[in-house]
């Protein structure tokens, strides 16, 4: 089995999960606690990658990050490298692609935190930031882990967006799913089969972790009163 | 909370080695039309025997897709196209290495291929094979961006079969996906590159008939050294190797006729 695409994909998925924690948690917090009238529009935008074909998403991202357009040009001026068909370009595309898989579990776990606990913390003089880190986060651990693991797993298995934005470059953008596709075209069925089986096992393990984590948390700390 | 911090640190640690992906410029990255799928592996193996330190990586795909990827900044050093017009356009638009012009290295051929299980006698029926009652699906490469697909379409138009069979087409994204469609039995018959038809895995499982080359525009195969190869001596060495007698003889083994005009 060729390990290069597997290591590359693991790196991509790790980077994307970290970025999604950093930008996903604030978005989820805002979605959970904002009272803005048009909030549902933002929620719809966050959920878009769930229903959009990867080619649509891939096409828009490719156009946006192309050196012929504003974002791509800015990137070239800042870092001296073009974004499409690079690892960084792939990271950007995957962040959009996996956004709902992080934000939705985060937001739903924030929403299940008992409002009375949060308000009690506020009345006791705790700042919003302190309340967030000492009340909301500890009570949402399962949701946060679920979000991280799901976005990791989702990035691991992405294909269409990677093919459009990454373009199958060995060691740079050839992820596991593209490698399997490539092996099938090269009539290397046994290699495709072993990589596919590896991915199947990994995905199963990851999902088992998600369900195990959620179950354990429910039985130890009942969140619903 | 602690678990989350540990996870973050661990993933951040994973991030570190990714930086050297960009820095590594000693290896050659080749974009090759997928008709080279098997010939290229041989070329690289023999080249590796002469230059043991060389490191070459190849992406296979359709020439048209590579053309647009290169224009969008894909970091390839050499582009082997199944259609000379793409390297020529890239050279015109300034994507080529300075002082180098596109090189035509071979002429490709197309064949009608059937699995050995098929009842169709492709050698006798020729184009009529496509109309055989057992044929439900015909695999061709997408003529929009795959040169071999274009050649398949041209030869069908030339012989007046196109209208009769076009409803049975299944289109491969490139010529090796097309070959995979027929080899796996997903399509009953296919028009594929000769270079793929005579590769070991295809020849064991089927038979083919060569479509006369005058039925379509010549499939001029061309390569070009791209701007990215500027500091890369291996890329230049590999380009010279493909043009050498040894390179040409390997290509010939895979059904690529030598390019007689330089």
Helix and strand element order of chain B:
HHEHEHEHEEHEHHEHEHHEEHHE
At CATH level 3, the topology of the largest domain in chain B is D-Maltodextrin-Binding Protein, domain 2
Low-pLDDT runs of 5+ residues of chain B are: 15-24
For the record, the count of structural domains of chain B works out to 2
Looking at the structure, the CATH topology of chain A is MetI-like fold
Radius of gyration of chain B over alpha carbons?
21 Å
Instruction: Please identify the top-level CATH class of the largest domain in chain B.
Output: Alpha Beta
Tell me about the largest β-sheet of chain B: 6 strands, mixed
Into which percentage range does the β-strand content of chain B fall? Answer: 15-25%
- With strands numbered from the N-terminus, the spatial order across the biggest sheet of chain B is 2-1-3-10-4-11
Structural class of the secondary structure composition of chain B? alpha/beta
Helix fraction bin of chain B: 25-40%
Q: What's the average pLDDT of chain A? A: 88
Sum up the structure in keywords.
heterodimer; A: 225 residues; mainly alpha; MetI-like fold; B: 262 residues; alpha/beta; D-Maltodextrin-Binding Protein, domain 2; 2 domains; 6-stranded mixed β-sheet; 5-stranded mixed β-sheet; 13 helices; 40% helix; 21% strand; elongated
Structure write-up:
- In chain A, 79% of the residues lie in helices and 0% in strands.
- Chain A is mainly alpha-helical.
- The model of chain A has no long low-confidence stretch (mean pLDDT 88).
- Chain B has two domains: 23-107 and 218-258, D-Maltodextrin-Binding Protein, domain 2 (3-Layer(aba) Sandwich), CATH 3.40.190; 109-215, 3-Layer(aba) Sandwich (D-Maltodextrin-Binding Protein, domain 2), CATH 3.40.190.10.
- Chain B has helices at 2-15, 20-23, 39-50, 63-71, 85-92, 122-125, 147-158, 162-165, 175-183, 194-197, 200-203, 233-243, 245-253; strands spanning 28-33, 56-61, 78-81, 103-108, 110-115, 138-141, 169-172, 189-193, 206-210, 219-225, 257-258.
- Chain B has a six-stranded mixed β-sheet, with helices on both faces. In chain B, strands 7-6-8-5-9 form a five-stranded mixed β-sheet.
- In chain B, helix 3 (39-50) links the parallel strand 1 and strand 2.
- The radius of gyration of chain B is 21 Å and the shape is elongated.
- Chain B starts with a helix and ends with a strand.
- Chains A and B meet through helix 1, helix 7, helix 8 and helix 10 of A and helix 1, strand 2 and helix 9 of B.
């Amino acid at each position: 089995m060729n390990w290069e695409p597997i290591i590359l994909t693991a790196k991509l998925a790790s980077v994307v999960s970290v970025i999604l924690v950093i930008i996903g948690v604030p978005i989820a917090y805002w979605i959970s606690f904002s009272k803005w009238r048009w909030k549902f529009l933002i929620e719809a935008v966050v959920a878009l990658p769930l229903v959009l074909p990867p080619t649509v998403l891939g096409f828009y991202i490719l156009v946006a990050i192309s050196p012929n357009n504003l974002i791509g040009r800015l990137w070239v001026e800042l870092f001296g490298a073009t974004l499409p068909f690079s690892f960084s370009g792939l990271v950007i595309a995957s962040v959009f692609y996996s956004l709902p898989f992080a934000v939705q579990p985060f937001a739903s776990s924030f929403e299940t935190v008992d409002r009375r606990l949060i308000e009690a913390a506020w009345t006791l003089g705790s700042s919003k930031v302190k309340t967030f880190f000492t009340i909301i986060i500890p009570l949402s651990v399962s949701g946060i882990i679920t979000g991280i693991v799901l976005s990791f797993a989702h990035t691991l298995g992405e294909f269409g967006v990677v093919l459009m934005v990454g373009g199958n470059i060995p060691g740079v953008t050839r992820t596991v799913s593209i490698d399997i596709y490539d092996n099938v075209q090269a009539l290397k069925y046994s290699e495709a089969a072993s990589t596919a089986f590896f991915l199947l096992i990994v995905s199963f393990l990851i999902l088992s972790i998600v369900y195990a984590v959620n179950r354990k948390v429910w039985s130890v700390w009942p969140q619903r009163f | 909370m602690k678990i989350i911090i540990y996870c973050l640190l661990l993933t951040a640690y994973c991030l570190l080695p990714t930086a050297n992906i960009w820095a590594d410029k000693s290896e050659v990255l080749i974009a090759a039309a997928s008709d080279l799928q098997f010939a290229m592996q041989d070329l690289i193996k023999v080249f590796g025997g002469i230059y043991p330190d060389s490191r070459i990586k190849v992406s296979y795909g359709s020439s048209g897709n590579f053309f647009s990827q290169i224009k969008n900044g894909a970091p390839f050093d050499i582009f082997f196209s199944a259609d000379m017009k793409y390297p020529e356009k890239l050279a015109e638009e300034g994507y080529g290495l300075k002082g180098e012009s596109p090189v035509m290295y071979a002429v490709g051929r197309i064949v009608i291929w059937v699995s050995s299980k098929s009842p169709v006698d492709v050698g006798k029926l020729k184009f009529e094979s496509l109309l055989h009652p057992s044929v439900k699906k015909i695999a061709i490469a997408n003529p929009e961006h795959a040169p071999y697909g274009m050649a398949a379409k041209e030869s069908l138009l030339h012989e007046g079969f196109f209208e009769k069979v076009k409803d049975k087409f299944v289109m491969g994204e490139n010529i090796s996906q097309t070959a995979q469609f027929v080899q796996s039995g997903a399509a009953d018959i296919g028009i594929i590159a000769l270079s793929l038809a005579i590769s070991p895995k295809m020849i064991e499982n089927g038979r083919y008939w060569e479509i006369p080359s005058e039925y379509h525009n010549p499939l001029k195969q061309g390569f070009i050294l791209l701007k990215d190869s500027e500091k890369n001596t291996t890329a230049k060495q590999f380009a010279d190797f493909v043009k050498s007698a040894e390179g040409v003889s390997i290509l010939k083994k895979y059904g690529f006729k030598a390019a007689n005009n330089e």
